Amino acid sequence: MRFSLLVLAFMMTAALLLGGDGAPKVTYASHDQVAAAFVKGGGIASGPYYSVGAMHRTGSGAAELHDTQTDVYYVADGEATLVTGGMLLGDKVVSPGQHQGTGIQGGDVHHLTMGDVVVIPAGTPHWFKEVPHSINYLLIKAVKQ
After folding, report:
1. Over the chain, what HEC string results?
2. In order of start, what are the domains of the chain with their CATH numbers?
3. 47-62: buried (b, 16+ CB within 10 Å) or exposed (e) per residue?
4. pTM for the whole structure
């Protein structure tokens, strides 16, 4: 119950802060829906300026940088090492405004565990360098207007 309320609070905050056409529409996701989304990894809600997804990782991935999207992570369970900032290595544009690379040179290292929140502003390289077992996290993407 507490987790589903947290999900709803995150979604409503994103909707209210980021605006859009007309009044924001409330989206509610039950704890069962969120748990199912973590199993397969998937979207929970979206609007013109935001999206909310339940992410599940079992390993490292490509380093990323988004020109106009701010990422907010809330760690639901598990652990990982996240690197933010520094310089994106092997920078390659994979779609408009989206970059991927092979890693990050420099940057700040964060050991993420349950309950942690990370806000990664648009234009900031970020990379899950290590995921020892698995990590489940809510991902809120807010698009810069």
Report:
1. CHHHHHHHHHHHHHHHHHCCCCCCCCCCCCHHHHHHHHHHCEEEEEECCEEEEEEEECCCCCEEEECCEEEEEEEEEEEEEEEECCEEECCEEEECCEEEECEEECCEEEEEECCCEEEECCCCCEEEEECCCCEEEEEEEEECC
2. 2-143 (2.60.120.10)
3. bebbbbbbbbbeeeee
4. 0.82
25-66 per-position pLDDT tens digit: 789 999 999 999 999 888 999 988 999 999 999 999 999 999
Decide if 96 contacts 68 (C-beta within 8 A): no
